[in-house]
Amino acid sequence: MKIGIDTFGCDHGRSGLGSYLISMCRQLSIDYQDIQFELFGSEIDRYTYVSPETEKNPNLTFKSVNILEGVTPELLWHKFQFNSFAKKQKYDAVIFPAGARIIPSNFSVPSVAIISDMVSSVFDKTKNAFLRRQIVKGLSRADCVIAASDFIRNDLLSSGITPNRVEVVHNGIDHSIFYPQENLGIENDVVDIKPFAIKKPYIIYASRMQREEKKHVELIKAFTLFKERTGLPHRLVISGSEGPYSDFVHRAAFTSSAASDIFITGYFPHEGFPELYRGAEICAFPSMNEGVGLPVLEAMATGIPVTCSSSGALKEIAGNNALFFDSNNVEEISYCLERLAVDSELRAKLVASGLEWTKNFKWEKTAAKTMEVVLSVIKKQ
Length: 381
Fold this sequence. Notes:
This protein is α/β, with parallel strands linked by helices. The chain contains 15 helices and 15 strands.
């Protein structure tokens, strides 16, 4: 059996979608060695999603697609050339991990689209009518659509898309790297993650600076109030790739009265996040309309308390194991930061319940449920 995996739309591994695909490829290559998985996409991604661990497994290969990079060339290829390509490669099924961003409008092989983005947000951001039509047609005609949360499922259906079948499969987290470490850094007050040396204590927010809804600016304002009100030594560490909203974030940090305690790292390799989280005292995640919110789970799994937005899928993903706030209310965000900084009993409670909660999220489970769906659509043909 041969299954194709489309790497287009996954940001060359530098986003949540990219991290998802890296983790899924690792798990699929380990758990399903009797199935041939072939990634296909731009030549630049030949080694993006294949780690040294998965490279040893001959059941995970890569097929380069020779097209110009960019949304329009990729859309056109998926619309007019994908089906002949899939037939030529003799795929029994194809998985589209970035189904809300790029997908064919019809299929010659069994297809499963995975939705980790808010489809409504994708539609709101794009002025490309061709892209919108193709996504609507593709998701409506795919054999099955996998939504990464119930919130995404509801958003999908309310966006005017009528898929044949929708399944909810939550993402996993890698417990082999995201785990608590006792007495980390007691002997010094600096977390050394080359090329960064970050002074403790600090509050971490890991998210790409791509749009206003990520609420970086509101968090900076809340942190400024927190510093002015408490005088505590905490720093704010914002970690994530530069994006269209970067200038606003840098300006807010520069003009803050707490500017000397705000550290913006820019792009941060995903493999460095476990240590970055473990060294933190608080994880703040103000992003609104998140469909997945994986950083919240990763932070919990490393044993730090989380305060996050009450919107989007975050209440579904975090359960009762975080301190929630209205992301538009700077005072409320600041108050939550203060509570977690000074209330040791609350911190301990959230850490304990968060560690237990995250045991439910495993890539083994995500891969198994995903393959259950893929094999079921193959069987129906």
